[in-house]
C-alpha cells in the first residue's frame, strides 16, 4: 500500500513540544515500512494548496495524519483533514469535525455538558461564556493549544467568575490566547487511551498520574514542565501508573464508560485519549478529549498499548485499517 505520512512542519530550534511530532512521524514511518508499505512524508505548513499538490503527486492509497498545528497554531489542525475530505482521499485519524470540536476546549465542554457528561464548570468570553456561578479555585487554560501550554504553577487563581473573566481579558493577545478558566478539581488525575479496531473502539488500561513528593501548596497538575522539561522537578516527580487495588474497579469502569462516551459524542476514529480529574468524593470529571494524542514510543499512549499487551506495530496497522 502507498501511504503519505503528513505532519506539521517544524522550524529549526523548535521547542520539544513542537519537535516531538518528528519523533512520532519517524516511529510510524518505520512501522509502516517494516510492514511492507511504501511511505512518503510531507511536512505541512499554511500552504494548503501545497498539501493538495503533495497528495496529487504521491497518489496514496491513504494518508496518515499526524498534524498537530499549522504555522504554530493549534486551532488550524482541522484544516488538513478538511482538505483530505474535500479531495476525497481516505486518511487515518479522527475526522475533521471531531478534531475541530475537541480542539476548541470550551466548545467541547459545552457539548459534553449538553450530553450529560460531567465536566468542571468554566468561564470564558465570547459566545461560550461558560456555566460557572461560584467563587473558588480555577485553572487558566488555552482554548486551542495543547501540550499543556501555559500550564504552570501560576495557572491557578482564586476568585468568583466575574473576577476570573476579567483576569482572562488581561491575557488577550498573549501566546496561547484565547484563554478560559476551568474550576480546578482537587484530587487525582487519570487519562485513558482509546484504539479503533474491527470490533469497534477499545478503551486501553487507565493510567493515573502520581505527583510524588510534591511539597505542600504546589499544584498537583500535569503542566508543561512535567511533560517537556527533563531537568525539572515536575518531570521527574510526575509518574504514570497502571496499578490499582481491586477496590478501584468501579471507578476504573466508570472512567472507561465516560471515555467511550466521548469517543461516540465527538465521532472519533483511529486513536484518541480522554483526560480526567477525580475529586475527593471519587467522582470523575472530564477535562478534555484529545483527538490526536502523541504516538511517540515514549509517550503515554504507547505506555497504555504496552500495558494492554498490544505491540506498537499492531496498533499502527489497526489505525491504518480504520482509515476512511
Keywords:
single chain; 324 residues; alpha+beta; Rossmann fold; D-amino Acid Aminotransferase, Chain A, domain 1; six-stranded antiparallel beta sheet; four-stranded parallel beta sheet; 35% helix; 23% strand; globular
Quick recap of the structure?
With 324 residues, the chain is an alpha+beta fold. It has helices spanning 16-34, 48-58, 79-87, 96-103, 105-114, 161-170, 224-228, 233-237, 249-266, 300-308, 312-321; strands at residues 2-8, 38-44, 62-65, 91-92, 122-123, 136-142, 156-159, 179-183, 187-195, 202-203, 207-211, 238-241, 271-279, 284-290. Strand 13 and strand 14 form a beta hairpin.
Which regions have little confidence, pLDDT < 50, spanning 5+ residues?
A: none
Q: Average pLDDT, to the nearest integer?
A: 93
Distance, first to last CA: 14 Å
Biggest beta sheet attributes: 6 strands, antiparallel
Overview of the molecule:
This protein has helices spanning 16-34, 48-58, 79-87, 96-103, 105-114, 161-170, 224-228, 233-237, 249-266, 300-308, 312-321; strands at 2-8, 38-44, 62-65, 91-92, 122-123, 136-142, 156-159, 179-183, 187-195, 202-203, 207-211, 238-241, 271-279, 284-290. With 324 residues, it is an alpha+beta fold. It folds into three domains: 2-92, Response regulator (Rossmann fold), CATH 3.40.50.2300; 119-183, no CATH class; 186-206 and 242-321, ATP-grasp fold, B domain (D-amino Acid Aminotransferase, Chain A, domain 1, 2-Layer Sandwich), CATH 3.30.470.20. The protein is globular, with a radius of gyration of 19 Å.
Amino acid at each position: 500500500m502507498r501511504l503519505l505520512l503528513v505532519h506539521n512542519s517544524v522550524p529549526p530550534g523548535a521547542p520539544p513540544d513542537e519537535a516531538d511530532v518528528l519523533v512520532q512521524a519517524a516511529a510510524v514511518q518505520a512501522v509502516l515500512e517494516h510492514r511492507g508499505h511504501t511511505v512518503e512524508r510531507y511536512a505541512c505548513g499554511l500552504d494548503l494548496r501545497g498539501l493538495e499538490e503533495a497528495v496529487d503527486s504521491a497518489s496514496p492509497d491513504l494518508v496518515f495524519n499526524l498534524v498537530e498545528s499549522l504555522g504554530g497554531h493549534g486551532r488550524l489542525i482541522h484544516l488538513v483533514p478538511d482538505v483530505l475530505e474535500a479531495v476525497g482521499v481516505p486518511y487515518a485519524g479522527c475526522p475533521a469535525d471531531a478534531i475541530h470540536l475537541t480542539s476548541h476546549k470550551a466548545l467541547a465542554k459545552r457539548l459534553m455538558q449538553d450530553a450529560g457528561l460531567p465536566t468542571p464548570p468554566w468561564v470564558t468570553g465570547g459566545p461560550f461564556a461558560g456555566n460557572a456561578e461560584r467563587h473558588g479555585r480555577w485553572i487558566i487554560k488555552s482554548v486551542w493549544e495543547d501540550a499543556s501550554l501555559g500550564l504552570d504553577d501560576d495557572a491557578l487563581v482564586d476568585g468568583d467568575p466575574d473576577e476570573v473573566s476579567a483576569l482572562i481579558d488581561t491575557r488577550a493577545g498573549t501566546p496561547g490566547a484565547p484563554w478560559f478558566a476551568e474550576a480546578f478539581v482537587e484530587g487525582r488525575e487519570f487519562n485513558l487511551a482509546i484504539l479503533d479496531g474491527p470490533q469497534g473502539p477499545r478503551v486501553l488500561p487507565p493510567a493515573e498520574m502520581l505527583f510524588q513528593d510534591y511539597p505542600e501548596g504546589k499544584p498537583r497538575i500535569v503542566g508543561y514542565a512535567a511533560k517537556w522539561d527533563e531537568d525539572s522537578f515536575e518531570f521527574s516527580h510526575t509518574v504514570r501508573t497502571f496499578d490499582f487495588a481491586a477496590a478501584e474497579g468501579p471507578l476504573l469502569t466508570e472512567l472507561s464508560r465516560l471515555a467511550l462516551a466521548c469517543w461516540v459524542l465527538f465521532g472519533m476514529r483511529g486513536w484518541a485519549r480522554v483526560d480526567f480529574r477525580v475529586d475527593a468524593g471519587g467522582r470523575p470529571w472530564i477535562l478534555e478529549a484529545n483527538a490526536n494524542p502523541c504516538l511517540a514510543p515514549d509517550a503515554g499512549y504507547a505506555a497504555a498499548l504496552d500495558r494492554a499487551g498490544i505491540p506498537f506495530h499492531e496498533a499502527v496497522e489497526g489505525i491504518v485499517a480504520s482509515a476512511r
